[in-house]
Write a structure and sequence with these properties.
With 330 residues, this protein is α/β, with parallel strands linked by helices. It has helices at residues 10-15, 27-38, 72-85, 148-151, 167-177, 196-203, 300-326; strands at 17-23, 43-47, 60-61, 70-71, 90-92, 95-101, 104-109, 114-122, 126-128, 144-145, 159-163, 182-186, 208-211, 214-221, 225-232, 237-242, 245-248, 252-254, 286-288. The longest helix has 27 residues, at 300-326. The structure holds flavin-adenine dinucleotide. The site of flavin-adenine dinucleotide has 36 residues, from helix 2, strand 2, helix 5 and helix 7.
């Protein structure tokens, strides 16, 4: 059940200055919101799509402590209810620009609104990386998918390929094995980045075949996907593979475009924003939490950890500002 807290009319928001603007509405954002609200500061969460981020489109989560096994949508909903229990409003809008003006952070949204905050937390997460091959865009929604949980049911008793070698590829492939007739796991290397527990589980499935050292060169079809053109790197040959669909899990792209104007933000070579575990950026009052931050492990647990840090550090920063204004020390 969605419970959305109204934030009042457009006029009042435009005038209002929040303590903390939280951009994004996934686990990192919700955790930050809880920490800020519990410290009696006023935060707002601005989310462009569905609350819960990637968790909302994940099938079953079984590695987040306290939840032995829970549907992603259910966990997303619980997190949202948790932050709302502390009175943090969730506003639905896409932030297109975040700038700093006169010591305030100003978030401009696609629908023409602005939100102002004394501090800001970037928690915009990441989105799936594309293969970049012919047919990928053309057949998106017609056999090409980046979300097994969302689209898997369209492929009941059909033949699909999953592309990738990381945790997401394997967990989503495991999910699909219960739906499809046959599944090919296509990976460009011999070895996998995925955790061995997932690799072993997939190997045991009778309807799975691994195609290794192989890359996808083209996704072909008529009105929908009907085959892949593959290239075997070891044998240096091209071949086609008939499939009804292809699920692509080859990494993530950080959602950083709205922050390009902020001078002083640093990015790693994959485009993720650099900040230490404390989530503090080089820009005073600006924090970065969750999958959008440069780090090794992108999981709910690490996003939640970042959110806790970002919320805490934002509150500390606000208190320093207040102390400086009153000329006192705490
Ligand atoms: C298929 C799948 C399965 C997974 N399974 C697991 C698992 O089993 N266990 C586990 O621990 N992790 C799992 N993960 C990873 C986990 O979901 C992420 O690490 C976690 O959700 C990251 O949280 P986040 O808050 O940093 O970002 P996200 O969850 O990506 O949330 C970011 C939010 O920001 C919003 N946003 C982006 N740009 C803007 C903007 N400009 N304006 C406003 N809002 C914006 C997005 O719409 C999104 O809702 C899985 C991920 C996927 C995709």
């Amino acid at each position: 059940m969605l419970i959305l807290t109204p934030t009042g009319g457009q006029e009042s928001q435009e005038e209002k200055i929040y303590d903390v603007l939280i951009i994004g509405g996934g686990p990192a954002a919700f955790t930050a919101g809880i920490y800020v609200a519990r410290a009696m500061k006023e935060a707002i969460i601005i989310e462009k799509e569905a609350p819960g981020g990637q968790v909302a489109v994940s099938d079953v989560i079984d590695n987040f402590p306290g939840f032995i096994e829970i549907k992603g949508s259910e966990l997303a909903n619980r997190m949202m209810q948790h932050v709302q229990k502390f009175g943090v409003p969730i506003e639905f809008a896409e932030v297109t620009r975040l700038v700093k003006e006169d010591d305030l952070f100003v978030a401009h949204t696609a629908d023409g609104r602005t939100f102002k905050g004394k501090t800001a937390i970037i928690a915009t997460g990441a989105t799936p990386r594309k293969l970049g091959v012919p047919g990928e865009d053309k057949f998106y929604g017609a056999g090409v998918s980046y979300c097994a949980v969302c689209d898997g049911h369209f492929f009941r008793d059909k033949v699909v390929a999953v592309v990738g070698g990381g945790d997401s590829a394997f967990t989503e492939a495991l999910y699909l094995t219960g739906i499809v007739k046959k599944l090919y796991l296509i990976h460009r290397r011999e070895g996998f980045r995925a955790q061995p527990i997932y690799v072993e589980a997939l190997k045991k499935k009778p309807n799975v075949e691994f195609i290794l050292n192989t890359i996808v060169r083209e996704i072909r079809g008529d009105t929908k996907v009907n085959e892949l053109l593959l290239y075997d790197r070891k044998q240096d040959i091209e071949f086609t593979l008939p499939v009804d669909g292809v699920f692509i899990y080859i990494g993530m792209l950080p959602a950083v475009e709205p922050f390009r104007e902020l001078e002083g933000l640093e990015y790693d070579n994959q485009g993720f924003i650099i900040a230490p575990e404390t989530t503090e950026t080089k820009i005073p009052g600006l924090f970065v939490a969750g999958d959008v931050r440069s780090k090794e492990l992108r999981q709910i647990a690490t996003a939640v950890s970042d959110g806790a840090y970002a919320g805490t550090k934002a509150v500390e920063y606000l208190e320093e500002l207040e102390n400086a204004k009153s000329g006192g020390s705490s």
